[in-house]
Design a protein that fits this description.
The complex is a heterodimer of chains A (132) and B (204).
Chain A lengths: L14 E7 L4 H17 L4 E8 L3 H8 L10 E4 L3 H4 L8 E5 L5 E6 L7 H12 L3
Chain B lengths: L3 E2 L8 H16 L10 E4 L6 E7 L2 E7 L2 H9 L5 H8 L2 E9 L5 E4 L4 E4 L2 E4 L3 H10 L4 H10 L4 E4 L4 E8 L6 E10 L2 E11 L5
Antiparallel strand pairs in B: 2-3, 3-4, 4-5, 5-10, 6-9, 7-8, 7-11, 11-12
The chains are: A alpha/beta (132), B alpha+beta (204).
Chain lengths: 132, 204
């Protein structure tokens, strides 16, 4: 939303969580705060969260994210024409992917999650500890 | 609650092709079973909005009425003109939630699902048919994108714990009752279940 373009190739070496969402999608709205808590837990490590909004404008997104507590600290990306979304195997929102340090998709979650759930945190920690 | 491991990077089309080939082969050998799972019904005491839910062999499906005014407001806020929003609001609409609580991988296609009235079975009106109408009306692209992603997915594969939600439309009149026959594939078999006595919302 700050006009910055993110390329996955630039994020090689990091574990990346990619989330496709929209403000009108109830489970998307519900899971974002837990995603922020996860981000805060791992933000000092080789970890990145990219939350890609589908089809909405910055004003609409700000009107929603401004109400969230804690405030979101990870990048919110705009996919205005859903071109990015179409390049991924997504059938519905929300859908989340986790990429390992090599940029490979290793996990997928369809539907809302509590991202700071201990099992999910342990899975991410496992990926972060793998430094091959 | 865990993430589900993906065996390989599936951003290419390999997995999709495999699923399609697997589906075609599977159709040759499929059979269906009906468990007779009981539909639960609930009415919100404040709004009067009704929900029907069934848990059948690990598939939890619920349909919650979407009132015509809710549909009008949602789509007009996303770039639909009032006439186009009215076309959609006239349909019998439900917020649909499907959860895979089975412990195994399942797949479904909305094209396989039917609504039953009397002794006849009918197809649902699916998202591509609506999009044809929106293109004909020259609705702006953001409106059509919002419509696409607000609909219940046309097809999907769920790992254990996966779920999804979205709008679904039956071309039925206000107050009409029907049963929804939903189908899914798991363990090389096709299953079917019924959500019974679902009723279209009135315009109020």
């Amino acid at each position: 939303m700050d006009e910055k373009i993110y390329r996955l190739a630039d994020l090689r070496g990091k574990v990346v969580l990619i989330n496709f969402w929209a403000t009108w999608c109830p489970p998307c709205r519900k899971e974002l705060p837990s995603m922020e808590r996860l981000w805060q837990q791992f933000s000092k490590e080789d970890f990145m969260v990219l939350a890609i909004n589908v089809g909405e404008d910055a004003d609409t997104i700000f009107a929603f994210t401004g109400t969230l507590e804690p405030a979101l600290g990870f990048p919110l990306l705009l996919d205005r024409d859903s071109a990015v979304l179409k390049a991924w195997p997504v059938r519905g929102l929300p859908t989340t992917f986790v990429l390992d340090r090599e940029g490979r998709v290793v996990y997928r979650a369809v539907g809302g999650r509590e991202f700071d759930n201990p099992e999910l945190v342990a899975q991410l920690r496992g990926l972060l500890q793998n430094r091959r | 609650m865990r993430f589900r491991r993906i065996p390989g990077d599936n951003r290419n089309r390999t997995v999709l092709r495999s699923i399609l080939v697997g589906t075609a082969l599977f159709n040759l050998f499929m059979f269906t079973m009906d468990s007779g799972a009981e539909t639960q019904h609930n009415r919100d005491p404040e709004t009067g909005i009704e929900t029907w839910e069934v848990l059948d062999r690990g598939m939890r499906l619920s349909l919650t009425q979407i009132l015509p005014d809710q549909a009008r407001a949602f789509y007009q806020a996303r770039g639909f003109d009032s006439d186009a929003a009215e076309v959609y609001a006239k349909a019998c609409l439900f917020q649909t939630v499907l959860r895979n609580e089975s412990g195994g991988v399942i797949a479904f296609r909305l094209a396989d699902w039917r609504y039953l009235t009397g002794k006849r079975a009918f197809r649902l009106k699916l998202e591509p048919e609506w999009q044809y109408e929106w293109e004909r009306r020259n609705l702006p692209e953001p409106a059509r994108i919002a419509f696409r992603w607000a609909q219940f997915p046309l097809e999907q594969t769920f790992e254990p714990g996966d779920w999804n939600q979205g709008m679904m439309a039956c071309p039925l009149p206000r107050g009409a009752r029907f049963d929804l026959r939903f189908k899914w594939r798991a363990d090389g078999k096709m299953f079917e279940g019924d959500l019974k006595g679902v009723r279209c919302a009135e315009d109020r």
